[in-house]
Amino acid sequence: MGLNEKPLSTLHEKASFDLGDFEVPTGREESWRFTPLSRLKGLHNGKAEPVGHVRLDVDAAPEVTVETVGRDDARLGKAFAPTDRVSAQAWHSFEKATVITVPREAVASKPTVLTLTGDSFNKGDGTASFGHIVVKVEPMAEAVLVLDHKGSGVYADNIEFAVGDGASLKVVSVQDWDDDAVHVSHHHAQLAKDATFRSFVVTLGGDLVRLSPSVSYTAPGGDADMSGVYFADAGQHLEHRLLVDHSQPNCKSNVDYRGALQGEDAHTVWIGDVIIRVEAEGTDTYELNRNLILTDGARADSVPNLEILTGEVAGAGHASASGRLDDEHIFYLQARGIPYDEARRLVIRGFLGQLIEKIEVEEIRERVLTAVEAELAR
Questions:
Q1: pLDDT in tens, 122-174
Q2: SS3 letters across 186-251
Q3: Is the pLDDT of residue 378 over 80?
Q4: CB of 103 closer than 8 Å to CB of 137
Q5: Which residues contact 74 (CB under 8 A, 6 or more apart)?
Q6: Each residue of 10-41: b (16+ CB within 10 Å) or e?
């Protein structure tokens, strides 16, 4: 397969299954200028041999079908095409794919949990693992999916979410890798008529994590909500690059990501691209990113982009803010007898907790809150 006829946006000029269509990045490209390429362990230039191992365990709802298929399965690559070199490398390098199907009008009775565990022997010595997952929610069906990443290694994958007419899919993706892990992933959701997609990303662990969630629409009435929290410690690079491509009329999207950083050379990157095409009249969209910089030596890059090609929109906006803790908030709590360290934790907990409370899977929500408390105790 070659290039798509229509680009995803001005910042993502091409989408292709052909690895040769993507030059090896140098770091000068707009889409790679924030990423420390030397820490990708060869994922971007083909030097990482696909001999590592990330184990996938699935605890599926009884209404859901789980299949392991070969590369020739016709359902693969229907909802997306790679838009960068690593995504294309992952497409060419995986051996088996996992296809999860929620049948028409089925309502899953419990979350389907996919646990991906990196092999402790895969330490980035020129080896890597590659994966591919397809989640197909048929018309009028409803499901909740959890993606739980842990362990060590170097891993790149693509995940397709195809949400049918009137269907609903809620996804929670947790990146809780060991400190030496490298993970580069592209999540793409394709929404049919009146489909609903809710995504929540939690990124805490890993040496370098770069996630690229994106959404596209195939018919009117689609509704996407993409939220995320991240907490970067000293030396960590956590990068989230979002794209919402409004190409159908009367669709909605909302993006809200929040992060906290502490420690020398802690670095987070958030890129939010929203494009509203000429034919996407009645679009209602908003994107927001906020970052708390807790110590000296930490850096947060935040770049919201909104491209509007039609004057007939219901609403469109974006906002970004990065800064330190508000002294007035701390003073208010201290004036009521709360010690400084506890006041600091309360403010940060409230800042992130407003989003964390949106996680509908109680076990994951409590786990994330506990992890944030552990970060604050450092």
A1: 454 678 999 999 999 999 999 999 999 999 999 999 999 999 999 999 999 99
A2: EEEEEECCCCEEEEEEEECCCCEEEEEEEEEECCCCCEEEEEEEEEECCCCEEEEEEEEEECCCCC
A3: no
A4: no
A5: none
A6: ebbebbbbeeeebeebeeeeebbebbeeeebb
> Could you give the strand order of the β-sheet that contains 196-203, starting from the edge strand earlier in sequence?
54-59, 112-118, 142-151, 168-175, 196-203, 223-232, 252-261, 284-293, 315-323
- Lookup: tokens for 315: 């609403």
Pair of tokens at residue 378: 């450092």
3-state secondary structure (DSSP) of residue 59? strand
Q: Which residue has the tokens 């007035």?
A: 328
Q: 0.85 exceeded by the pTM?
A: yes
215 with 245: CB under 8 angstroms? yes
Instruction: Write down the pLDDT at residue 332.
Output: 64
Please, which residues bridge with residue 259 across strands?
A: 230, 291
Nearest CA among 284, 294, 192, 185 for reference residue 242 = 185
Q: In what order do the strands lie in the sheet with 299-308?
A: 65-69, 97-102, 129-137, 154-163, 182-191, 208-217, 237-246, 267-276, 299-308
Pairing assessment for the beta strands 65-69 and 97-102 based on DSSP bridges: antiparallel
280: closest CA among 304, 305, 256, 315?
A: 315
Which whole number is the average pLDDT over 270-295? 96
Question: How many angstroms separate the CA atoms of 253 and 221, rounded?
Answer: 11
Strand partners, 174: 148, 202
CB 139, CB 166: distance < 8 Å: yes
Report d(CA 64, CA 56) in Å as an integer.
16
d(CA 214, CA 200): 13
Residue type, 56: L
Contact 197, 191 (CB under 8 A): yes
Between strands 182-191 and 54-59, the pairing is: unpaired
Return the number of other C-beta atoms located less than 10 Å from residue 111's C-beta.
21
Cα(226)–Cα(213) distance, integer angstroms: 9
